[in-house]
Each structure stands twice: as structure tokens, then as C-alpha cells.
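worker-03 picked up job from queue 'complexes'. Input manifest follows; two sequence lines, order preserved.
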Amino acid sequence: MTDSNSSTSLLNGVNVEALLDARGALDEAPEAANFTFKAESEWLDGVHARMQMSDFFGLGEEQSRNKAFTVETDHPEVFAATDAAPSPVELVLSALAGCLTAGIASVAENRGIQLRAAKATVEGDMNLYGVLGIDSSVRNGFSAIRVIYDIDADASQEDLEALVAQSQKRSAVFDIITNPTNVSVALS
Amino acid sequence: MRSATTIIIGAGQSGLAVSRYLTDCSIDHVLLERGQVANAWRTERWDSLRLLTPNWLSRLPGYHYTGKDPNGFRTLDETVGFLGDYARNIDAPVRTNTTVQSVRAMGSGYQVQTNCGEWACRTLVLANGALSTPRVPSIAGDVPVNIRSLTVGDYKRPSDVEEGGVLVVGASASGVQISLELCRAGRDVTLAVGEHIRVPRTYRGRDIFWLMDAAGLFDHCIDDVDDLERVRSLPSMQLIGSTSMNTIDVNSLQDLGVAIRGRLVGIRGNIAHFSGALPHICKLADLKMNRLLRTFDEWIEKEGSDAVTEAAYALEATRVPQLPDLTLNLSEQGIKTIIWATGFDPDYSWLKLPVLDHRGRLQHDGGVVAAPGVYAMGLPFMRKRKSSFIDGAADDARFLVKHLSSFLAKRSNMVA
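worker-03 finished. Artifact:
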């Protein structure tokens, strides 16, 4: 929110009306709904890298943000690394929490539920036999991910459960993690 | 070229209900039916299917059930017989074995091309069924060649399915019923569970449809819902019509030995991949079911209804394996057949009018189609929640025939 005044009538600061308008408009203009998100990455040293995210494509044209965000990834010392930044897998867990939390705030806004706090703990189980190539039957990635939400709001337990369920239903990252995606990696 | 004021495409419950009201208004019409009356019930469903709705809940204009088993569920044969009797009773002008090949605008009306020649009409009713074409996802193209793919339209009985393993894709009414039948016939059934609507067959001693009808849910109108798109694309309720009033759900199927997986998301070689969102999908279904049951509780409390004597109770949550398998090796598990119970679409391939949106869906406002004098019937939540049920045909037909008849009156005035 760049302009806090504009959010005074909103419970949780989510402009749901704009989102609903966009949904209506995009239904009429299917091409505009095709987005391409981008990130650029640069190796720094060791297993330390820096990623930059700025422009993306959507609504039929390049969308320029006039600014760039950076995140870095490294690996913990137990992996004989410098631990200068979170590991990529921790960023994946963070992205899941970020996406679900955005969903919870939006759905709460739409349902007239005022949030006072919404905290999540995300855990991902990983057996290193996979990434270390010790056992080919063990996958590289997480074998299971658990998200525990602690939400303070004026709503019944059932309403909160419905809120959390609906945020999963509409979450991009939840879908990215739970369903396969075609991925190609090539040299330029 | 033959002509009629109104042509009704399809002679199922929807077309027959419209025919009855058109006759009442003395509007001359014909019903063009590609097969016999109640054709889909006759030819496009599996043998053991019974209606999901109890016998009493099949009121049509001028008809209500007077038999001995109001709470029973009609077999397919009984359904075909019932609609056939109704067609004879109302003297419906049905042209059987008449397949519509195209509909085009012509002058101030429409030209209907069939395998038995051309018809002209001023008004048109599309009563050809919302569930005419089994929907099959594109991943069906990745099924290994040694595995047989069947749609719900192809499947008739367990003996059609080779001994061994079966993967049933979809856990709505068709998928759970076929899973149950195949499991009882000794097949090893794996059920891929996507989004579904869990409802018990009975609650507090009453059939779920009795409760929905009594509490007024079937009469909810399109103006009562905030997201019409959503309610119109909901899957069928997870139900079975049987002689024993059984509830069928993911729990009861697991009790019988059906293995459950998440939504089928891909097949690579011999490996089927499933979504990891199964716990979420089941939780969603439980939450929605509990909300529905609370609606009934509130209605019972408010009405103080004598018809419900049992106290409220909670149903067991859907049991999901701690870590559901995300893959299934089709050859190692001996899967010989995959059954796609992934929904149905209406068929409008023959409708050469600018009334379909970019996703091929019919554009209509409560059954009044976006072309003058064209109407639809029997679509999900077309005007009310019951629009796609036999019991919903009467209200929709009454409204649309009224609209149609005033449309004709205005046209005549303009010509005069």
C-alpha cells in the first residue's frame, strides 16, 4: 500500500473490489489474462547467488515497475557453505506462506472478516539422500510440507478453516508445489 | 420445408415440460429427438444407475408420483418408462430418430437441418441436455496403448472391464458409483479425487433432497447467489440412488478397499501423477458439507418441523492417508482400464448462431438465449438450483413458455 489513506475503508487493506473488477474484465478479454513472470539470477561465489525481479508481461504488454527487487540464496554452514542468505528451498517455503497469507487477507476482506494477526509456520521435510545422490529412490525435493496458521480475527473456528481452505484453492504457489509443471532449462 | 412455430430440440424431461405448456397455449410445435424419448437415460448411462432423486421429487407439469414407493429411486428402465408415459399422456408431438445437424438464422426465424429433412421455425427451445458429451481431459491422450480408456458414456457394466486394476478419475456421482460397483465386482480400484461435493444420503433421518426441497434450497434463484459462474460449474453431488439409502463417499469407498489418490494431473510413460492437494480437497468438501448440514439444522430449529425427529450430529471427517502416494505405476499395479468420470458438457457443435462465448458456453439470461426467440432448458442453475433436475423442469418451462408466447405476440403486432 503506497497510499495508506486509500485503505481506510478496507478491513485488511486488500482492494477486493479492484480484484473482482479485474476478474470481470479479464473474462471478456482472455488474451490479457496471459502473464509471464520473470526473475534474473547471477552467480556470486560458492553456492551464493543473487536474483533480481522487475518487469513482467501481462494485460497484453510489458509491465515496467521502474524498480527492481533482489533476493539472495546461499546454503547453511552444515552444507559447507557461507550461509550468507536463506537456501532456495527456504525461499520456496516462504513463497508458499506469502501466497497463502495474501489469499487469507483477500478472502477475509471479501467476507468481511477483520484480521488482527495471521502467522504461519511452514515446515518442509527433506531426506538428503536425494540431493546427495545416495539413494535414487529418494526424491530431491520435499517429501512433505506442513503449514500451520495462527490467526487472530473476529470469526468462528469454522469460518477460519473455510478462509484457509479458500486461500489454498486460489493459491498459485500451492498449485505450483502440489502439481507438476513442465520445466525447460537451456543454454542461451 | 416443413415448419412449426416452435421447435424443441430434445425429448427428455425438459423438452416434454415445455411441450406441455406450449400445448396449453395452443402454440404449434414439434420435438426433434435424435433417438427415442428419454434417449440419454436409455442409451448413455451405465446399467445399474438409478436416479439420484427420490421418486416423489420428479414432478412435471400435470404429473406427480402416486406409486407405492415415493422414497425409492428409479432405475434407468423405470425412468425411461416414466418419461415415455408422460410423453404419451401429454400427447407430445415427438419426431423420433431425428438428429439435428445444424441450426441457422433464417429471416425472422430459424432453419433446422436434420437427417430427416429441413424445418423452419420462429422460436427454438434447446432442450438437448446439459450432460450430453463426456468431458475428457487432454491427459487422456497420454494413456499407454495397452491400457483401455473408457468414458462414463462408454461404461455399461463391470463385465466390460478387464480383470485386474482400474483407475477411476473423478469422485463425483458417476466416479464414486462406478468405483463402488467395480470394487464389489472384484476389481482393484484406485480413485483419483479432485474437487467434489460431499453430501450424506440422509441426515437426521431424512433424505438429503427432502431436506434441500423443504428448506427451500432447490428454489434458490440466480438472483440469490453471488457467483453464478461458480454454482453453474459445480460438479454433481457425491450420491447414489439405491434400495438401501446408502451414503457413498471417500470414506465408505476406502472401507471397501478402494485406494484413493489426489486429482490426476499427468501421465508420463507408465507413471500416473497425482496432485498433492488431496488433504485440502477433502477438507474443502467436509467444510462445505458441514455448512450445508448447519443450514438444515437452522431450518429445522426455525420451523420446529415435526417431520425431523433425530437430533443433529456430526459426520466423520474424510479420512486421508497421512502421506498419500503421488504416483501410481500403471503397469506394476496391473491397471488395465482407466475410466474418465470427469464431467459432461452440452453439445452445441450444430448451433450456428452467435450465442456461444469464447469458451463455447451458451450465453443466456435465465434460459433466455442471446438470440431472439431462442430458449434453453435443463442447464445447471439456469434459473434455480433445481433447473437441471427433473423436478426443476416445470417452473423453468412455465416461465420460458410465457416469455416465448409474449415474444410471438410482439412479433405478430410488429408484422401487423
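worker-03 released lock.
Residues 1-7 of chain A have pLDDT under 50 and may be disordered.
Strands of chain A lie at 40-45, 48-53, 56-58, 61-63, 69-73, 115-125, 144-153.
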